[in-house]
Structure formats: structure tokens, C-alpha cells
Amino acid sequence: MSFALTVLENVVRIAEEKRARTVTKIRLEIGELLLINPEQLEFCFRAISRETVAEDAELDISVVKAKVTCSNCGKEKPTPYGLCECGGRMVVRGGKEIVLKSIVMEVDDAQG
After folding, report:
1. Any idea where the domains of the chain sit in the sequence?
2. 15 Cβ partners below 8 Å, 6+ apart?
3. SS (H, E, C) 38-77
4. Contact 80/50 with Cβ under 8 angstroms?
5. Which residues pair with 104 in a beta bridge?
6. Span 48-100, pLDDT tens digits
7. Nearest-5° angle of CA 74, CA 61, CA 94?
């Protein structure tokens, strides 16, 4: 629920700054290592976004894979666990982020 709340708070803040009437689409990228189920995130978002500018927004959620490489030889691995064959430790880059990529909103043309 906290991830959904953070997304909603940021979307509402940006919509208010832009004086948007409504938000129609939100694009998110979530890192696979956060272990967030996109369907659960959307369910929580729907529950808390009622009566906000984002109430009917379409959520487009992409899961981003982590990049795991050996600190010694640079070889890529599918998981961050264990050591590389060369003895180097695995370094994880990415896969732990939640990024608000874009927000599509309807705004009034005339700024009174």
C-alpha cells in the first residue's frame, strides 16, 4: 500500500502544479527486486485514488530486470546470489527502483 500511496501523492502533486483537471494515464517502472506484484499495486492504487484527479487513470506498469554483474570479470549473471566462477562477488545495478516515467493529464488551455 505504501508504494501505491507514494505514487498517488506524487501524481496528485504534479497534477496540482500543472492545474490538471484529470489524470488519464500513469506510466511506472518497478524493479523486479522490489517484489511488487503489478496487479496488487494497481488494486491498492485504485482503492486510494478514489475522488482524486487520478481516480480513472490507466496504469501502465513495467517490471525492470536487475542487472547483475561480477565485480571481478564483468560477466552478467541471472541472479545476485553466490560468487562468480572467477571468485568475484556479484554486484546488482537496478531492479530496486520505482520510477514515475510519465503522466498524461488534461489541463485547461487558459490560465486565468
Report:
1. 2-65+95-106
2. 23, 53, 54, 103, 105
3. HHHHHHHHHHHCCCCCCCCCEEEEEEECCEEEECCCCCEE
4. no
5. 25
6. 999 999 999 999 999 999 999 999 999 998 877 888 889 898 899 888 899 99
7. 20
| CATH architecture, domain defined by 2-65+95-106 | 2-Layer Sandwich (3.30)
Nearest to 36 by CA among 72, 8, 61, 68: 61
On average, the pLDDT of the chain sits at 92
| DSSP symbol at 88 | P
pTM: 0.81
**Cα–Cα distance for residue pair 103/37, rounded to 1 Å:** 21
Least Cα distance to 89 among 73, 65, 107, 111 occurs for 73
| Residue 29 neighbours by CB distance under 10 Å | 15
